[in-house]
Design a protein that fits this description.
By secondary structure, the chain is mostly helical. The chain has helices at 2-10, 17-50, 57-73, 76-89, 94-122, 126-143, 145-171, 178-191, 203-213, 219-248. It has one domain (15-252).
Length: 260
């Protein structure tokens, strides 16, 4: 295992810089950008309920980048704490902030399930896919229009994440089929849903390596793809999320503005 890890690290200098850069852009502008649009929908609902002015989309994106930077560079729950402190400064009660976080997780789960549905249908499991899709549609209808829109943005974020993994893999000169890519994305989503290690370190890489093994990709090559996928997150988050994290706590001194 140690030999495979050493071999994977040795392949990083051969990474295609153009494709690696594309993976970083897809992560920041696609995955994180779509999450910001998802969060904005849910924040506007809770801010209207609390009669406070919601943060604009730019600020929502900045706080989300700060949260992801804290989660990836340190530990997942720290990211929630950073956002919670800032949102509380906007006058949102703690219960409303908790509802936003929960709604985000539900919308994100729906996006992940939607990707899994496509994989099931492509694999011939049409009845199972149709049954799950019916349940998901019922949930969206019950939760309302803005939650449905938020779930749509969450699905777009999930598809962007699959794109990040595909670009990172091609940057490492590994041609991965669609099924292993989807399995890798689903494995990451399941393996990192509980923050066991800082930034999902090790857990995320294991999920990608196991998923790619289904396509017969050797462990060192699969692990190299996993490392490139991590770089696609860490580099832009360090450049953009780091400064956002450093300044986000200043919102704790902000006086809440009540909507007219």
């Amino acid at each position: 295992m140690i030999g495979a890890i050493a071999e994977a690290f040795s392949t990083l200098p051969a990474m295609n810089p153009v494709l690696a850069g594309g993976a970083m852009v897809a992560m920041l502008g696609g995955k994180t950008g779509m999450k910001a649009l998802r969060s904005q929908q849910l924040l506007e609902v809770e801010c209207a309920r609390a009669n406070v002015i919601a943060p604009n989309l730019g600020l929502t994106a900045r706080l989300l980048a700060a949260s992801h930077a804290a989660g990836q560079l340190a530990w997942g729950p720290l990211g929630f704490g950073v956002r919670s402190v800032a949102l509380k400064a906007f006058g949102l009660p703690v219960t409303a902030i908790a509802r936003v976080h929960v709604a985000e997780r539900i919308a994100e789960a729906i996006g992940i399930v939607a990707v899994a549905l496509v994989a099931l249908a492509a694999g011939g499991h049409v009845l199972a896919a149709a049954a799950i899709a019916l349940l998901g549609t019922a949930l969206l209808v019950l939760r309302g229009k803005q939650f449905a829109i938020a779930s749509g943005w969450a699905l777009a974020s999930s598809l962007a994440d699959v794109t990040v993994l595909a670009l990172a893999s091609h940057a490492m000169h590994v041609d991965v089929g669609r099924v292993p890519l989807v399995l890798g994305f689903l494995g990451i989503s399941v393996a990192t849903c509980v923050p066991i290690t800082p930034g999902g370190l090790g857990v995320q890489e294991a999920a990608i390596t196991l998923a790619f093994a289904t396509a017969g990709i050797p462990a060192p090559e699969a692990l190299g793809c996993a490392l490139a996928y991590r770089c696609a997150h860490l580099v832009p988050l360090a450049i953009v999320g780091g400064p956002a994290l450093a300044t986000s706590l200043k919102f704790a001194k902000r006086k809440p503005v009540v909507a007219a």
